[in-house]
Amino acid sequence: MSTIINISVAAGDDDCRWHWTGSIWVFGKSDAYVQAGDRSATQYDDASAMRFLDVTVPSGATIVHAYLKLVSLAVRGTGWKTIVDGQLAPNPVTFSNMGDILTRSWTLASVVWNPAAWVVNTQYTSTDIASVIQEIIEQGGWNSGQSMVIRWSDGWGTGYQGDRRLWADAFEDASDTPAILSIEYDEGASGRSSPSVASRLLSGRFL
Fold first, then answer.
1. Domain count of the chain?
2. What is the pTM of this model?
3. Which residues contact 43 (CB under 8 A, 6 or more apart)?
4. Greater model confidence, 5 or 205
5. In what helix (H) or strand (E) does residue 189 lie, and over which residues does it extend?
6. Exposed, middle or buried, 172 (CB in 10 Å: 0-12/13-18/19+)?
7. CATH assignment at residue 94
8. Rounded Cα gap, residues 166 and 39, in angstroms
9. Does 79 fall in a domain?
10. Is 42 part of any domain?
11. pLDDT for 189
12. Could you tell me if residue 205 is inside a domain?
């Protein structure tokens, strides 16, 4: 029988967002939102990360399904493309600044999430990110009860690709629900392997 757990971001320091201006990265973690997409020629490659504490998935489990759930806050444009992946660390610490983000390593597994709609104050569920979670728990050092970091980023590629941007509630938005990580798992030997991600849209600047 599978087990389902749901974990919410539990502190303001445990979600953050950043974007590229064309010359520097701008980082924030005290805002009421997380974001993904492009806004303008001086604000693009928007991305966010969320840290979930006490993820009680045992080492060796098989991830059946997993999802990132976000409550929409605002929207620009149409035809949104986003990517969800995770930090490849067994118990990542909270976020401090952009330099900290730049030093983090990310999973090879990633999942494309292209929402068909983004109605304000509606909760949306990502495509299945089981492969991302599986890669995290299969790394050395993972133990049940440790933290996980999930990243949500622009999927159009490096550079300004048009005015398409999604905002979702962060922990600081007390009126709504922050990000939730939902995981369904079976205990026992893992039978899932993390897929190749040759199609990931990466460069020296697009994190």
1. 1
2. 0.87
3. 19, 20, 21, 26
4. 5
5. none
6. middle
7. 2.60.120
8. 9
9. yes
10. yes
11. 59
12. no
d(CA 159, CA 176): 31
What is the C-alpha to C-alpha distance for residues 60 and 99, in angstroms, rounded to an integer? 33
Please compute, for residue 69, the number of CA atoms within 13 A of its CA located in the half-sphere on the CB side. Answer: 17
Handedness of CA 124, 127, 2, 137 (dihedral sign): negative
pLDDT of residue 50: 96
DSSP classification of residue 102 = H
State the residue range of the domain holding 17.
3-186
Query: How many Å is the Cα radius of gyration of the chain?
Result: 16
Of 181, 193, 23, 13, nearest in space to 108 by CA: 193
Q: How far apart are CA 35 and CA 144, in angstroms?
A: 29
pLDDT at residue 138, rounded to an integer: 97
Chain CA centroid to CA 127, Å:
12
User: pLDDT tens-digit profile of 71-99?
Assistant: 999 988 777 889 999 999 999 999 999 99
Task: DSSP letter for 11, please.
Answer: S
- To which residue do tokens 């604000």 refer? 43
In a domain, 199, yes or no: no
Q: What is the mean pLDDT of the chain?
A: 87
Between CA 145 and CA 168 the distance in angstroms is 26
Strand partners, 124: 70
